[in-house]
Amino acid sequence: MTVKGFFKSNAFKCIVTLLCVLLVSGVLLTIAYGFMEVSDGERLQRAVKKVYTASSPIVHGVDENGKDKIIDADEKDPKGLTQSVTSGKATILSAYIIKFEGSDEVNYLVQSRGKEGYSGGTVTCWVAINVDFESRTVLNIAKVQIGENTNQSFIGKITEKMLNDFTKNLPEDGFTTKGDDATISSGATFSSNAICNAVNGAVEWVKKDILTREEVA
């Protein structure tokens, strides 16, 4: 077949048609992705709303100079008070100040990844912590919300009762899955252990990093 004949053939027409379909599909997918893309600020806002279901929290982080900044859903790269620091048996991935309209209450919302879960895995939690600035003490845990997990086959067995138990008391030596005062879900001991480590790590970070600062929120 000659070159001229090839360009007139059905095979060439099919190739051109397929290329046009691929080009148009790529353009449409790009446009659709632009509409569906969720910013990091929006992801943060969604996580915060899961923790504070009955209120309207205002999320405070910091700007590029470390100064206080309100973070909204349009924020592309929200910056918290810290990023990826070790605290006990947990890694503090991020932390934010949470305030409420018409209230003096202030929470620290800490994203903490607890270690030593099932099969060496982890559980990442959002831990809302109330503090007293005058006495510089942690008062209590307002909420614990599970975010993500790695290798936790029995994470579905973690009960709301266990997560609510974190809000009832604050043991001086931290939460544990052992002993009479164990904080645990039956059938998910290792996942419970990782969650306890996440909560303990969040509390310790607030005590050592926030409440020891010369100025707090």
Offer a concise description of the structure.
The chain is α+β, with helices and mostly antiparallel strands. The chain contains five helices and seven strands; from the N terminus they run H-H-H-E-E-E-E-E-E-E-H-H. Strands 1, 2, 3, 4, 5, 6 and 7 form a seven-stranded antiparallel β-sheet that branches.
Describe, in plain words, how this protein is organized in 3D.
The protein is α+β, with helices and mostly antiparallel strands and 217 residues long. It contains five helices and seven strands, in the order H-H-H-E-E-E-E-E-E-E-H-H. Strands 1, 2, 3, 4, 5, 6 and 7 form a seven-stranded antiparallel sheet that branches. It is extended and about 90 Å long.
